[in-house]
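yo, Flavonol synthase/flavanone 3-hydroxylase-like is done. seq:
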Amino acid sequence: MAPTGTSMEAYNGHEVPKVASIKTLADSAALTFVPSEYTYTKNPNEQGDANDPEHSIPILIFPFSHQDLLINEQKDFLKVIVHPQFNSLYKPAGYSEVSLEFSKRTREVATEMLKGISESLGLEGHYIVKAMNWDRGLQILAANYYPACPQPDKAIGLPPHTDHGLVTLLIQNEMGGLEVKHKDQWVLVNVAPGAFVVTIGDQMQILTKDKYKSIWHRAVVNNKATRISIAVPRGPSLDTPALPIPELLEREGQAPKYIGMTYEKFIASPAALIKPFLDHLRVKHN
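structure:
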C-alpha cells in the first residue's frame, strides 16, 4: 500500500487531501465535497468510440430490499468493478494505483478466508476457491459517503440487506454506523480502528447449506459527523452456478436446500427485490 500521508492539494479554492491510501481518504476530516475534477472516468481530452468496449462503463444493478426507504437514503457513493477486469477513475492522480493495490490486497485476504472456511467444513483448503472460479470472480470496490444528517431518525444510510456474494470486507472511519440484525434486534457493530469487518454473503450460505449464513445489515446516519466506508464485495465468476457442496450433501445424507443458478442470474433476478431473496430459492420438500 502507498504511505498514509495527509498532504493537501488545492481544487477550486478548496483544499482536499492527496490520495495516498484508501485509509487516508476514509479518515480525512477535510473531505466534505467531491471536486468536479474527480468526475472524469477517463482522460477528458481523448475521443472515444461509443461502440468500442474499451470506452464502455461496466454496469451491474444491485437492487435494495425496501424500495420505499430509498427516498430517505442519505449517502453518496462510488461503485466500480475491479475484478476480473480492473476499472478505475481517471482522477484524482494516484487513485488508480492505490485502488489497484488495495483491490489486490483485499482479494488476498478474502482468498485466505475462503481457504479457512473450506477447511472448517472438512474440505481441501482450495475447494471453494476452485469451485467458485475465484480467479475469475466478481469483485467490486464500493465507497460510501454518509454526511451528518440533522434528522437521523427520519433517514437511513443504507437500507437493510444481505450481500449477494461470498464474502465482503469493509473498512470505515472512526464514525461508526454499521448495524447487524441479531435476534430481531439491530445491534451496532463496534469496530477497532483500522480493522476490517467481514460479512458472509448469500452465495456462501447456499454453498455451505446454511452452515455459514449471510447476515442482515444496514448503515445508519448521525447528526454529529460524516461517516465514510469502503466495502469490497467478492463473489464467484458470473457464469458459475451456486449449488450446495456435493460432499456436504453426501456426508450428511441430505437433499439440496436451494435451487441453483449462475451468479449473474442471481444478482439480476427480479426476485432480488423481494427479501429475503434466499427464501425464494429454497427447495420445498414434501
